[in-house]
Design goal:
- With about 475 residues, this protein is of the alpha/beta class.
- It has ten helices and 20 strands.
- It is globular, with a radius of gyration of 23 Å.
- The relative contact order is 0.13.
Length: about 475
């Protein structure tokens, strides 16, 4: 692979910002730029309240959001996250996380390495090398411009793509009554529009749990929460929330526009006003096209790399979940889902900066670069075969119990190339893992404090 010198990073959220910093300060490149479609940085940690002509994009964040990760694991290396100024509530808010990211990004914005208001609408592989990038400049009314870059890093993998399960009747319901089928990506809080409404929430991860909890104070109770299994995510018991099993079918009445949900156990929930999905997102980059040679032709054609129907669900053909195996001048940061994504993206983007600078060797052939994906698919199939009803968390990009080994391997590559970075990067050792696991007990305790219940000791929290 020819070492790239001009890099474009797409996306001004945490993954994009740390990639920019690490490529500028830890790599060897002549030009590094970041483009962000919004009028400010932050990604999912930014809410745009500025009235102007620019488009608006939905984000999973909402004004009352309190995170689930402590400052240690929101800190980029050499840039610690300030401790929140609240006793018994160590988890930063949306505003505090956004403030950290803005302060982190400030010198790069001032130096001209960040362009705001630029929406990427096309990335195309160029035969012979490089990438053509088309974007709209919303600072000038959406005028389209085209640029060529040696290498591209995509960090907009997940949060534009809300996932809805494939349940009979749901697609028809979305077509007939789209306002009554909602997703966490558009959640802005339990506002007056939900007052007195009969609501069904789908899912039992953080988003679904928080939406159900907030709705309980304003919507008709009980709030129904449909889950496939017991949640592993911290949430308080609430008598106003009634857990039910998975939904097998939806119907809607033309007489009163109400929804009926049929539960797998044979029960039905009738007269539902709104169904809200907290079912996550899927990886997809709709603006990306790569070269592919059909066996029936000789000329390569541009084709989409990602698809909603890719099986198993993933960004395909990635070496180490980072580099596109068929052309390693395309990279993704933020493809692996992690409980501590800031920490992991700091590591993966450092690895990328050094690999593209020629300091970390990568396999020389596409076949060898695809070996990681093939092994990961094999492991995933084995994991999913262990149960008749595997959870959604068992997927290609969620590494789970394999995350520590994955991170340690990348870290070893980094430290071998740049020994000094071993002193500043997260260590990914057993002590770090213990602190990460301790976050869940701390989150339960903070939830009790938040609702005004007497603070529990850690022993009591563990017992819950």
């Amino acid at each position: 692979m020819t070492q790239p010198t001009k890099l474009l990073i797409i996306g001004g959220g945490p993954c994009g910002l740390i990639t920019l910093r690490n490529c500028l300060r830890r790599g060897s490149f002549t030009e590094v730029q970041l483009v962000e479609r919004q009028n400010d940085i932050g990604g999912v940690w930014y809410q745009n309240h500025t009235p102007d002509h620019r488009p608006r994009w939905s984000t999973p964040a909402y004004p009352e959001l309190i995170g689930n990760v402590i400052p240690e694991f929101l800190s980029f290396s050499e840039h610690p996250f300030p401790a929140p100024p609240r006793e018994h509530q160590p988890f930063p808010t949306l505003a505090e996380t956004n403030a950290y990211l803005k302060e982190f990004a400030s010198p790069f914005i001032e130096s001209g390495h960040v362009r705001l208001g630029f929406e990427v609408i096309g990335v195309e592989e160029v035969e012979g090398g490089g990438w053509t990038v088309r974007m709209k400049n919303w600072n000038e009314g959406g005028v389209i411009l085209e640029e060529t870059w040696d290498a591209v890093v995509i960090t907009t993998v997940w949060f534009d793509n809300p996932y809805f399960p494939d349940i009979p009747g749901l697609q028809e319901l979305q077509q007939l009554q789209p306002s009554k089928v909602q997703h966490a990506i558009t959640w802005t809080g339990a506002h007056a529009g939900y007052e007195g409404k009969r609501v069904l929430v789908i899912g039992n991860a953080n988003s679904a749990n928080e939406m159900a909890s907030q709705l309980a104070s304003i919507a008709q109770t009980p709030i129904y929460r449909s889950t496939r299994r017991i949640s592993i995510f911290p949430s308080l018991p609430d008598p106003r929330i009634q857990d039910i099993g998975p939904i097998s079918r939806y119907t809607t009445s033309t007489a009163n526009d109400k929804i009926t949900a049929y539960v797998q156990d044979g029960t039905t929930i009738e007269d539902i006003d709104v169904v809200i999905f907290g079912t996550g997102y899927y990886p997809h980059v709709p603006y990306l096209r790569v070269l592919h040679t059909d066996t029936r032709t000789t000329a390569p054609a541009l084709v989409p790399l990602t698809s909603r129907t890719t099986t198993p669900t993933r960004i395909p053909s990635l070496h180490n979940q980072i580099l596109y195996a068929h052309n390693p001048t395309l990279a993704f940061i933020g493809a692996p889902t992690s409980f501590i994504p800031f920490t992991l993206s700091d590591l993966t983007s450092t690895w990328l900066a050094l690999a593209w600078s020629g300091l970390i060797p990568i396999p020389t052939t596409p076949k060898d670069r695809l070996a990681y994906e093939q092994e990961r698919i094999r492991i995933l199939a084995s994991q999913r075969s262990e149960t008749d009803n595997p959870p959604d968390l068992i997927n290609f990009h969620f590494l789970g119990r394999y995350e520590m080994g994955y991170a340690r391997s990348l870290r070893e590559d980094v430290v071998r190339a740049r020994p000094g970075l071993g002193e500043v990067l997260a260590r990914w050792d057993d002590e770090q893992e213990e602190r990460r696991f301790a976050m869940y007990a701390a989150k339960m305790e903070s939830l009790y404090v938040y609702v005004g219940v007497e603070r529990l000791g850690m022993k009591d929290v563990d017992a819950t």
